[in-house]
Amino acid sequence: MTRLLRNVLLFLLLLFALLWLLAKYLGWQPAPREPVTASCRSQAAALVPGQPLKVMTWNIQYLAGKRYVFWHDQARGADTRPSAQDLAFNLDEVTRVIRAEQPDVVLLQEVDKGAKATDQQDQLALLRERLADLYPCAAQAYDWKADFVPDRHILGSVGRTLATLSRYPIGKAERLQLPNAADNTFTRLLEGQPALLVSYLPMGDSGRLAVLNTRLSAYRPGSDLQRRQVEHVAKVLDRLESQGTPWIIGGDFNLLPLGQHRRLPAAQRNAYSADSDLHLLWDKYPMIPDNAEASGAERSAWLTHFPNDPGIAAPDRTLDYLLHSPRLQRLDAKVLQQDALQISDHLPVSARLVLPAR
Known about the structure:
The protein contains eight helices and 14 strands. By secondary structure, the chain is of the alpha+beta class. The protein has one domain (31-354): Endonuclease/exonuclease/phosphatase (Deoxyribonuclease I, Chain A). The mean pLDDT is 93.
C-alpha cells in the first residue's frame, strides 16, 4: 500500500470518526413519547363545556419576514439568515396580529430557540413577554434540535419548535414523535424530526380538551414519508375520538387540498403530490378551510402560503389548516391575509368553535 493511499484512508477514517462523534454527542434523539413542561405564569379559569373557543394556527417562519429567499426555500435562494433588525420588527408584527385577533389558543410553528441563524433567541419567551396579559399558559416542543449542524448554510446550532399559547390552563402536555427521515445518527443533525405537541386543557369537572400542534415534512418525490406522518396523526385523532376526548389540531401540514394541485404553475407542482394524503383526515373529520372553500369560487380568501420566491407575487396555495372533532361546532373561520402578508411565508388561520356541552 502506497503512503498516499494510507494517508487517504487515514483521513477518511478520521473524518468518519469525527462525523460519528458529532452525530452521537450533538445530535438529538427524542423518545416516541415525551412529557412536556406546561408553564402557567398566573391563575386562569378553566374551560367550560359548551363555551365558544377561538383558535388560531400560524407558521411564523422564525420571525424572518418576507425580504429573503432562503437556501431551504423552494426557490433555492442565497440567504442564510434574517437580520437582527428584521427579527425585532417581525416580533412586533406577530405580536400586533395576535393582539388584534385575540384568539383563546394560539398554535405557532417554526418558533426558534437557541438557533445560530436567529441569534440564539428564545422566540416563545419574547412573545410571552409581550402577550403576558392574554396568555398565562404555554407549552413548547422541539421538532429540530442540534448543537451543531455541519451544513455549509448553517454551521452552528439549530433549535426549531412548536409552541402553544393558551388563555386557559394547560393541565398536561406531551410531545409525540412522527415518522421522519432522520433514520441514522448523522441525519439527525441534518433533518428535522416532526412531532405533535399535545396540550390538554381541563374542561368542566373532569373533562379535557386536547389541542394538537404540528408541522409535517415537505413532500419528497418517491417517498411515502408524508403519508406515514398523516397516518400517524389519524391514529392519534382516532384514539382521542374513541376515548370521548374532544380535540382540535392545527398547523402547517405541507399538503394541498383537493383541486389545488392542477391550479399551480407547472414549475410548482413537483413540490406536492397530485393526490394529497390529507384526504386521510378530511375523509373523517371537519377541516378548516374545507375543500369547497379552498378550491371553490372564493378560494383566494383561503390561501395560506406566500412562498419566498421572486416569481410569486401573492399567496397561491393552502397548506395550513385546523381540523376538529365532530363533537365541536364551527361558528366562523377565516385566513388573515390583508394585514399579514409581509410577516411570514404563511398566513394565520383563525376559527371560532363551540365546545361540546358535556
